[in-house]
Amino acid sequence: MPALSARGEDAGALVGDAAGTVRNIVLTTVKYGGAEADWDAHRTAMPFLAWQLRERVGFNLETDVLDVPLSSNKIMNSPWVFMTGHKDFRLTDPEVANLRRYLLGGGTLWAEDCTHEDDPTWDRAFRRELARVLPPAEGHKLRRFKKEDGHPLFRSCFDLAEGYKGYFPPPGDKFRQSFLEGVELNGRLAVIYTRNDYGCGLEIKPDTHPGKVSLSSLSPAEMQESSFLMASNIIVYALTGGRGTSDRGLAGKAASSLRRQREAAQVQGDPYDKAPATLFDNFAEERWLVETEWEGAAPANLRHMRRADPGAEGKRLAVSFQLRKGDAKSVLVRDLPQESDLSGQDRCYIDVESRLEGGARIAIALITMPDWKYFESRPAFVKPGRQRVYFDLRAATWKTGEPVPEGGSEYSRTPANLQAVRRFVVLLYPVQRTGTIVLDQIEFRAKP
Q1: CA–CA distances in Å: residue 194 to residues 73, 339, 432
Q2: Which residues contact 65 (CB under 8 A, 6 or more apart)?
């Protein structure tokens, strides 16, 4: 790129002085698409990231935050640029031409879809416009990068090769995809496309938003940290010219300092791990039905599968769904032959295997006698792969469908009449419109 080559630096390099002292890192957000585009959807994300970089690097670092029109030659001064939004948009011809020149000249574009988890608006627009910038006919294609690919981007600053707290890639404000996408030019990722909303994650303020809801099981502080880690890797990857290793002077020093500052994860044991388990269902018999009459409930196919261990009891229940327009969930119902007493239990555990590429949520509902009272739990997050989720029967985190007092929370009730449970319901809320989630077994436990 002209601005960098004029300084005698390689494209994408971080510029400092001869002694290796940091001068600055510029975090550039591009203005694009005219009046219909909300390019400034994350006004505080880059300032927060700049502040975090200054605080964590541990030596003098000037971090500038700029908003630059995509059609301007000024983007050539930035080794990488950030692009985000919610709305449909169309790039002007000058924007297409300039972005193409920028990418082919060594620049890196980080594009971030920050829409709601089931909103495809920005994603469709970005894919359409990127095809104008880098036409598929020329061999350019957005490729998926999964955990098994071992891409150096995930080791450029922090070691995120295994993800963060069980998630790959790290979640942002949400966990929509278990991969990121990118376009490679001359062996480097020139376009990095993420849909897990790191922009919103960077804007989280854990002290003032302690109850922020997210499509993940992370706390607000963890979502913010996860977003920072992933953003740092993207920046260092771009600043090292796509090498994906933080061994080039200033970038290396900054990355080393950042790694030293990372807080170690606290491993906490679950006091219920050693508690006796009461099996509720191992799916050995076909007792479950798909409910489609509920509002927003989609059809689903149920399939009982043998376990891998031929000596193991029971089976696994595969739920394959296809959400139609207006559908939000799949609902499974099991009517009990008689009232079941769960009053001595504290938690309900479900072993789940998600075969989706992104996140989902799962909830349970208990219907109790004598009045067929309905209690639905707050949903738990399900990431791709195998995991165990639980629902606290004693916590005031259930809803009943009854009106909520003004200023109150929908999930603020505790299940009543647990000594007379007559129906058990599993509710699946996937982000993908089609896919399969496998239920392994359901059990209850009381704290020893």
Answers
A1: 25, 48, 16
A2: 26, 27, 29, 46, 47, 50
With a CB cutoff of 8 Å and minimum separation 6, the contacts of 295 are none
Whether residues 50 and 92 share a domain: the answer is yes
Q: Is residue 270 one of the residues assigned to a domain? A: no
- Based on the domain organization, do 433 and 315 belong to the same domain? yes
Q: Alpha helices of 175-329 — where are they, by DSSP H? A: 198-203, 220-239, 249-261
Structure tokens at 91: 């790039």
Longest CA–CA span in the chain (Å) reads 80
Q: Does residue 370 come out as left (phi exceeding 0), alpha (psi in the -120 to 50 range) or beta?
A: alpha
pLDDT digit string, tens, across residues 91-129 = 999 999 999 999 999 999 999 998 888 789 999 999 999
Nearest to 173 by CA among 141, 219, 133, 128: 219
**In residues, how long is the chain?**
448
Residue 229 backbone dihedrals phi, psi, to 5 degrees: -60, -45
Q: Are 239 and 13 contacting, i.e. CB atoms less than 8 angstroms apart?
A: yes
DSSP structure string for 363-427: EEEEEETTTTEEEEEPPEEE-SEEEEEEEETTSS-EE-SSPPPTT--SS-B----GGGEEEEEEE
**For residue 410, is it within any domain?**
yes
Both structure tokens of 333: 């119902």
Which letter does DSSP use for residue 22 in this model? B
- DSSP-based three-state secondary structure for 438: strand
Question: Does 296 share its domain with 240?
Answer: no
- CA dihedral over 110, 113, 117, 119, signed as positive or negative: negative
For the purposes of burial, counting CB atoms within 10 Å of the CB of 208, is it exposed (0-12), middle (13-18) or buried (19 or more)? exposed
203-251 tens-digit pLDDT: 876 554 444 455 678 888 888 889 989 998 898 888 777 665 544 444 5
Specify whether 46 is located in the same domain as 157. Answer: yes
Instruction: Say whether 396 sits in a helix, a strand or coil.
Output: coil
Among candidate residues 246, 250, 260, 209, the one with its CA nearest the CA of residue 55 = 260
Q: 3-state DSSP call for residue 216?
A: coil
Its pTM surpasses 0.85 = no
Q: Can you give the residue range of the structural domain that contains 57? A: 2-261
Q: How far apart are CA 312 and CA 41, in angstroms?
A: 52
* Amino acid making up residue 347: R
Half-sphere exposure of 419 (CA within 13 A, CB side): 0
| Phi, psi torsion values for 392, nearest 5 degrees | -85, 115
